Structures are given as structure tokens and as C-alpha cells.
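so my prof wants the structure for this chain in the C-alpha cells format not the other one, which i didnt know existed until like an hour ago. anyway here's the sequence
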Amino acid sequence: MIAYNHVTYIKEAVEGVLMQKVNFPWELVIADDFSTDGTREIILEYKVKYPDIIKLILQEKNVGAAQNWIDLITYPKSKYIAYFEGDDYWTDPLKLQKQVDFMEANENYSYCCTKFSVLNDNTKKISEDERFSIYSDQYVNETEITKENLFDPYISHTLTVVYRNHLLTNQDLKQPYFKDIFLFMCLLQKGNGKFLNFNSSVYRLNDNSIWGTKPKSVRAKQNFLTAESMLNYFPQDNNKHLVKFYIGCLFEYCHYLSVHEKYAYLGKKYTFIYYYSKLKRGVKSIIPSKYILKIQNNMKYYLMK
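here's what i got, hopefully its the right format
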């Protein structure tokens, strides 16, 4: 569990884990990124109460969400890992048991995930995430998640995922801008994922979340850099969905750049044009020519804007 200034929510998050009913040994690892609002004191109280179950990673200074997450997922030596942020929570006491049972019975899968609900922290209204109603027909038979459909729609929410720990390599974890979607793509190199058709968790939509408090421009830049890093790391894939994800992140990032910044960026080796040209050469076989033309037109538009 990732924790940072979650004093209002951390108890609900921890209790959602402690209520799990399982027939295998497990532990709860909480990585606190130097919280200053009382979160650390609460998790220390839980540690005293459950010394054999709860393990703590207590950062001595604020290391940032990305490093805190890496420290968390590299700490356990367990067969499986499930992780989430301290402002979300699990609702199904059999969540872990159901998912581990599936993984044990299906060794060719790298991870599995489930449905989840969204809690609007302002209105206190809880509703199932809209993706599961828009794409309801897809989930009747429990969707197979592959490198090709990871992004369309993106249902592998970290809050609900259980994955095989040994599949991630040190090389994977050293990649720049490594985050959840990068992690899933690494796992999918080793085996497909599986969507299990039950609701296990609640994702809290609030203005104080680790990701939500970042300016949109910062989020757009981080998404773009993650997509670029993924394309550098998976050159063998020729995955048109990964390419589309990159192009989408690129265009979103362009919204926040001035004309001067766009052209300054073009002067670097890894520029939109450099990378776009590289992609254009490499993906003609998998992306229709009309889509390539659309990308060309969009590039001209964003550079002139």
C-alpha cells in the first residue's frame, strides 16, 4: 500500500486488507512517503497491533510517489503482489482468495484484475466505473487482456490487480518513467492478463490524491514521457495500440506547450518529429495509410498552433 498524507482515509484502506479471508500466508506492506498529517502515526499503531502481518517502509524524507512505489513493489518476496494507494479501499473480503485461486489454476496468466466502483469524495456518491457499463458486452465472458487491447479500454486498474511477482525483471524496474501502465505492458510480455467479472474495490475520486493534485500539464508531460519510454523499451512489438497511446499522449502534451517550447523541443534528439518519423517508418504495416495521413495533419496543426 502506498501512503502519503492519507490521514482521513488510511484506516479504511488498511481495514479493507485486514478483513481478507484467505487460506494462504500473506503480509501487508505499507510504504509511507514521509507523511506529515498523522498518517504515519496511524500505520505505526496498526504495526503494533498486527506485528506479524504489517511491514512498514518509512521514508526518511519525501522521495516522491514514483520512488515510493518502486520501493514498495520491490520489497516483497511473495509469489503474488496486489497494491493500491491509501485513499482507496477493498470491499470484497474474498478479493485476494478469488484472484489467487484463479492465478493458481491458470499459470499462463501474468495478472488478473476486477471491476471497481468510484466514490466521488465531494458528493459521497458511489457508482460502478462507467467503463464497465459502456463495454458491458465485453465482460460477460471475462475479457482476455493482451498487449494489443491493454489500452482499449484501459481496465487494468492497480487497485484491483494481482500479479506474479517473479515476472518483473530488474531491467524492467530501471526503465525511466516506469509506472503502472508500463508495469502491465512488461507483464503482458510474459503472459496475458484476465479480467474477472466481480466488483472488489472502491476508487476514491478526490482533489487530494497523489495523482489528482498534480497540474494537468504535469500529468500530460509524465504520460507522454512514459509512453515514449515504453516505445523505446518495446521496439519489437509493432503494437499499433501502443503507438496510438503514444500519439494521444503527445497531442495532449502539446496543448500545454507554447510555440517557443514546441520548437525548442524539436531541437532535441528525442523530439516529436524525430520520434514521429521513426514511428512512421516502423508502423506503416500496421496502421492504415489514412491514419498516418491524419497523424501528419495533426502534427502540422500542433506545430502551427
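also thought this was worth mentioning. DSSP finds twelve helices and ten strands in the chain.
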